[in-house]
Amino acid sequence: MKKILLLSDTHSYIDNQILKHAKAADEVWHAGDIGDLAVTDALKKVAPLRAVFGNIDDHEIRKEFPLNNRFICEGVDVLITHIGGYPGRYSPAIREELRANPPKLFICGHSHILKVMPDKKLKLLHMNPGAIGKHGFHKARTMLRFTVDQGKIDNLEVIEMKR
After folding, report:
1. Fewest Cβ atoms closer than 10 Å to its Cβ: which of 7, 31, 67, 139?
2. With respect to CATH, is domain 2-162 assigned 3.60.21.10?
3. DSSP character for 160?
4. pLDDT tens across 121-155, in order?
């Protein structure tokens, strides 16, 4: 079993509260718009990190992290990208891959809106952790925490912080 901390849209912001939650995780997953490599460097010091770049990320971040990150974690096929859309309205850049070979868990960021919803047609779970950074229109900063174990995603919790 692995405890996962899922975050997105840090926009160069990292603080001790975020790092405290990261330390309690077995892995941290970042769904893009990192903003500054200091964010991912700080996260990597406390837990293994998997990340993708987002639309605001510069060439340095794009050299370090991919556009899409697909991997298996504890028997769960995971696909992370930054701009992914939602079930029934996926981004054209990822739509065909999702239809041809759907993962069990599809993660994206970008919207700054926390959503967790099933895609019954593709038989996957969609997660967007919202935004944990301070830049953007969101009223609350959010992340997700959950476990993956033997092909199952469980113990999902929303972590909400004030702006």
Report:
1. 139
2. yes
3. E
4. 999 999 999 999 998 888 899 999 999 999 999 99
